[in-house]
Design goal:
By secondary structure, this protein is an all-alpha fold. It has 2 helices and 2 strands, in the order ββαα. It comes from Castanea mollissima (Chinese chestnut).
């Protein structure tokens, strides 16, 4: 065996040596130790990076979830406000409708009264014309006018 060459590692079981491939034979024992600790540090570092990335992803998910909840809450508030405005409009239009119906009823009633008065005045005009015609026929003035002709 060449000095610095590693033939086996005794780990937890000193009776059973582990064979190391020949390519590792050129390494010195302190190089092997530093490489294995580097691998160990890299795996720990990779795990830490992975955990950090997962925590960033979880944080983003949490922020997105909170943002979505806020957006949904604002949407519900807008919807409620719109419904309130629509109900207000319904009440206003109902009131306006009742007002217009009352006004229409008053105008219709007035119209009926005007029609009745108009019919009465027409009858009165006919009666007055009739009386005037009768007065003219029996009047001495109209007789004198006929004689002059």
């Amino acid at each position: 065996m060449v000095p610095g060459e590693i033939t086996g590692i005794h780990y937890l079981a000193p009776e059973t040596p582990i064979s190391i491939p020949a390519s590792f034979g050129m390494m010195k024992s302190h190089e092997f130790t530093s490489q294995s600790s580097c691998l160990s540090n890299n795996s720990t570092s990779d795990e830490a990076d992975e955990e950090h990335q997962l925590s960033i992803i979880d944080e983003r998910k949490q922020r997105r979830m909170i943002s979505n909840r806020e957006s949904a809450r604002r949407s519900r508030m807008r919807k409620q406000k719109h419904l309130d405005e629509l109900w207000s409009q319904v009440l206003r239009l109902r009131t306006e409708n009742h007002t217009l119906i009352d006004k229409l009823n008053r105008v219709t009633e007035s119209h009926e009264q005007v029609l009745q008065e108009n019919a009465r005045l027409k009858e009165e005009a006919v009666d007055l014309r009739q009386m005037l015609t009768e007065l003219q026929i029996g009047s001495p003035y109209t007789t004198a006018l006929r004689d002059l002709e």
